[in-house]
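Per reviewer request, we include the raw input and output of the structure prediction for the construct analysed in the revised manuscript.
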Amino acid sequence: MLHTDREREREMESKIEAATGKLVVKKVGGKSTVTRCFSKYPLKFIIPNKVGSSETDAVWVYTLTYGGGIVSGDSISCEITVADACTAVLTTQASTKVYKSLGSKSSEQILEKQIFRVVLDSSLVIVDWITSGRHESGEKWDFELYRSTNHIFLEGDQPLFLDSVLLEQGSITNIAERMQDYQVIAMVILLG
């Protein structure tokens, strides 16, 4: 099903109450500009006025979490829209730490959605990675579930790249045993 920009915008507006972060980048005066920015605890967006050369048309967005990472009970959900002919960089100041859950309070971070819709002359760089944890604290792949999905579609919703990574504790072996000596999973996509 194809959606117009306005339909997508309305759809996103209806979800804003559930999201802890929403960001929209559009062309304003010929430059990529943040036209909508919303975040609430435990998430914060930092959008510096100047990053790099003044000739570069790119919006830089840093995501921050209070408490130095994702702590027990945190739930973070972001929706980010980058309009046609715009450039945006979404990053963090450092790797996101996920701290141990206390009792039944689980933590989660959801980037809604890691679906990229591009036109033929678009450029896209995606770096999606996870480390095994804090070795000094004895943590090595010590979590219940990790899921990362990245989909890239061309115009007309034609699939170009569909990728999913799922790590979950099993009843026979745990994640650490299956990962053996591997400490990082990374996926890098360069398109354009």
